[in-house]
Amino acid sequence: MASSMCHKCKRPHRRVSPLVEEFTVQGTQNGSGPDAALDNFPAIHNNLCPSEPPPSPVLRRFPSLSNSTFGSVESSSTLAEDDDHGGSLKDPEKNIVQTRAPEVGFFNSALAKTRLDVFCKYSKTLAILCVFVLAVLSLFWGVLFRVRENLRHATIAVVNFDASLSPYQNVEPVVGPFVEDAVRRELATQQYPLGYKFVPPVKFNNDPFAVRLAVHQERYWGAIIVNNNATALLRQAVANGNSSYDPFGAAQIITNQARDIESYNQYITPVLLRLASDISFDFGRNWTSQVLTDTSLAQVIYSNVPQALSPGIGFSIFNLRPFDPPTAIPAVSIGLIYLIIIAFFSFGFFIPTHMKFILPSTSSPHPPLKFAHLIIWRYFSTITAYFFLALCYSLVSLAFQIPFSRTPPHGLSTWPKNDVADNANYLGKSTFLVYWMLNFFGMSALGLACENVAMLIGQPWTALWLVFWVITNVSTGFYALELAPGFYGWGYAWPLRQIVYASRTLLFGTNSKLGVNFGILAAWIVVGTVLFPVSCWVMRWKGVRDKKKLAAMQTN
């Protein structure tokens, strides 16, 4: 053994092995054997270094130097001899070679229990995923399951002003009754008709513009209007040969595409255009027959106005809120999915940064931050991140020249006097700031829910939560719940729906419910804020529990 210095007397101990051999011989001569000699070794050492045990560094250096180590003279002598020969003395614990177990086949009997455990856990996980897919994806498919049956909820106001006001109230109406009869036939013959509703003109104060306003305010999905002078102008055209007669001045069809571009493009506008075409065709055939058999009308006169015979009448189409430009589609539909995803994944990006407060590095040691202070920091840093991420999201729409302005309904130069709400909420150049705040509120509502759930359920279940959160928000936000089964009534309170409808108001000037939209988003934020410290505590508790379990496993 290499020479060393005594920690008390400071005298060098050059060799240990002769000392061991000497007392081994003595023990043998006394009949006590090697074990007895080794038991006397500490007493002899105390004579050389009185009443002081070996210091702890020696024990740490040689953790196996215990009674069990000296139980064999051969092992001690061997260590001493290695030292005398200049060999390197190594820690006995480091000499233990962990032999890797040989690999076996999948069906080896040694893996029988493991195979059973793996199959059970695999089957359980697969069952959970299958049930989740069936349940959650059904929410997305189900929102469109009964659209055709629910088209009756897409109410279309049919308003007949024909010959109802001065100076045409004395004219026998022809156009108005024919249009009403055609709509009734539509209701009777179509399997899935729209919700046509005959409304008397007095309900709109005999004002066609009030009908447009009602559609704009989303009291109706659309309107069919027969103008007050429809029959009078038609009769004058065939009687007097008015070549400037325009058949499309007889009636109007009012739509509001920006309210829900999907529903209008697929279910409402095509049906109304087809109905208008059928009415014009049928009316032209019947009206031409009447004119030709009416001897009081001169052929030489009405032959100058062929459009007054066929089609006779037509429908002017007014789309109060066109969905334009196309770049606005992401801002009110698919693009909002990324608002959820960005809010969700920001949690994973910032968690390592937050953990620096409680897990100091070797290069920057420090005491851990108080848990309450950590919660406060995490919350405000998260909200700040949402604030700037929402700004970047909003700037993308601005960069692609989406118009942040609102104009009066189509055909009106100014807002009607009775449209007090829209006049009061006209935002002008400040629309973009409101749009930014809308996205900030929306991201906070969506993101805090993601943060809380991620802390509560942990991995890998957060992935399932993201799928659920996206599907439920998309189903209730991008599609008309009026046309969905009644089960989806909860969707009126879901956060993404508020962002979609408020964005349509800001970008296209649809009916304003900004107060309701911001209020619901604020409620989500409040709930998320209240749950945030609870979720943080649960996350910490789960971490401590897992560490205790790991420590118990290592101990066993």
From TrEMBL:
InterPro entries: DUF3533, MNNG_permease-like. The chain crosses the membrane at residues 125-144, 328-351, 371-396, 432-450, 462-481, 516-539. Residues 71-94 are annotated as: Disordered. It comes from the Eukaryota. The keyword Iron does not apply. Residues 85-94 have a biased composition (Basic and acidic residues). This is DUF3533 domain-containing protein. The lineage of its organism: Eukaryota, Fungi, Dikarya, Ascomycota, Pezizomycotina.
